[in-house]
Amino acid sequence: MDAQTAHVAPEAKSTSVAPVLTREDREGIATLCLNRPLQFNALSEGLLGALQDAFDSLASDTSVRCVVVAAAGKAFCAGHDLRQMRATPTAAYYQDLFARCSRMMLAIQNLPVPVIARVHGIATAAGCQLVGACDLAIAGESARFAVSGINVGLFCSTPAVALSRNVSPKRSFDMLVTGRFIDATTAADWGLVNEVVADAELDEAVARKCAAIVAKSPTAIRYGKQMFYRQRQMTLDAAYAFAGEVMARNMMEDDAGEGVDAFIAKRPPVWKPLA
Length: 275
What we know:
This protein has 275 residues and is of the alpha/beta class. It has twelve helices and ten strands.
């Protein structure tokens, strides 16, 4: 399928330049590309809106099996657009902005399919938050990560939510109060990304991960993603009870029967397309 624009933000329309976000669909994989390279893909109001629109659209698109969040230019994402933030210095504006950003991050978790961050260059502040909000992340070896708002007098409170759910409390707090960068290898060791590859091999590594996901039952993946995040908020006994109910429902699906029968017969399974 040809590349398609997911959203043309007002800032793009007014200057007749490329849209701030593009979407390309191919073989069940939707790739969203942040497209503000000169601003290191800072999350402007337009880009936040474009991402929200894209995730809202993807939520009901049964043809999509996996989503990749990528970026154009030298950086993945440098966080919020600080120039735009300073242009409206009111509490109401900032409350609305951070609420919109949080809603967009939550939309990633609420999608029924896995979302993979393809990270190159820097991922700082809300850009680091975006990496943490994605279900999976693969980074090029030159990628660097920071929650550096503290350097300009702003504690990265909303990025801290995603960061601290991937990285241990002491390590995440260290990053938050020092603003220091960590390299891709450290990010993998600390749990912020899944895999680090040579920069030239980043697209290939992302493609491999997508292919591994697309090869699995789409029904089982949808059951599993919803279950995974819900059970993390529960007590241990409640989590087991909930997981057992989900697994029982999953077993009643055609794909589970097909998968077990295929395993017994030593043949590849044929998954049922989503309606």
